[in-house]
Amino acid sequence: MKFEDILKSKEAEGKEKHVPIIEIGKGRGREGVDVVRVVVGRDVPHPNTVEHHIAWIELYGVRKDGQVIDLGRADFAPSYTNPNVRFQVPVEQFKSFCALAYCNVHGLWENCIEI
Ligand SMILES: [Fe+2]
């Protein structure tokens, strides 16, 4: 088995939405900094209970020279915090972003965007 075998993407989506949606906001943060927003359940909210929730989101960036950078992680308190997080990132240094989201019932989900 390879790590990629446990990652699910858009093709595996069912009624509940798990794929982390990545949005770029150039100059949208305080003092004009760039932000990368990652959200699960933007259009169809994912359950947020102790029994079933998104536990964490991680963001990775691929620099223009190909190096992969771990840009950060957010852990969520079930029933209190929603899986919606913003990272301040110098977007112009990257050519793509990838995010992971973990649902405690439905596993590990991935998504990537090209800039
Ligand atoms: Fe789920």
Walk me through what this model shows:
The chain is built from no helices and 8 strands. It has a single domain, classed as Immunoglobulin-like (Sandwich). It is mostly beta strands. The structure holds fe (ii) ion (FE2). Residues 16, 18, 46, 52, 103, 105-106 line the site of fe (ii) ion (FE2). Residues 16, 18, 46, 52, 103, 105-106 line the site of fe (ii) ion.
CATH class type: Mainly Beta
Can you write the helix and strand succession as a string?
Answer: EEEEEEEE
For the biggest sheet, the summary is: 5 strands, mixed
Query: Which whole number gives the mean pLDDT?
Result: 94
CATH topological fold name: Immunoglobulin-like
Q: Characterize the overall form.
A: globular
Summarize the amount of helix as a percent range: under 10%
- Total helices: the number is 0
Strand fraction equals: over 45%
List the helices and strands and how they pair.
Blueprint (H helix, E strand, L loop, with lengths): L6 E2 L12 E5 L9 E5 L14 E10 L4 E8 L8 E5 L5 E10 L3 E8 L1
Parallel strand pairs: 1-8
Antiparallel strand pairs: 2-3, 3-6, 4-5, 4-7, 7-8
Bound molecules: fe (ii) ion (FE2).
The site of fe (ii) ion has 7 residues, from loops.
Give a quick summary of the entry.
By secondary structure, the protein is mostly beta strands. The protein has one domain: Immunoglobulin-like.
Keywords:
115 residues; mainly beta; Immunoglobulin-like; three-stranded antiparallel sheet; 46% strand; binds fe (ii) ion
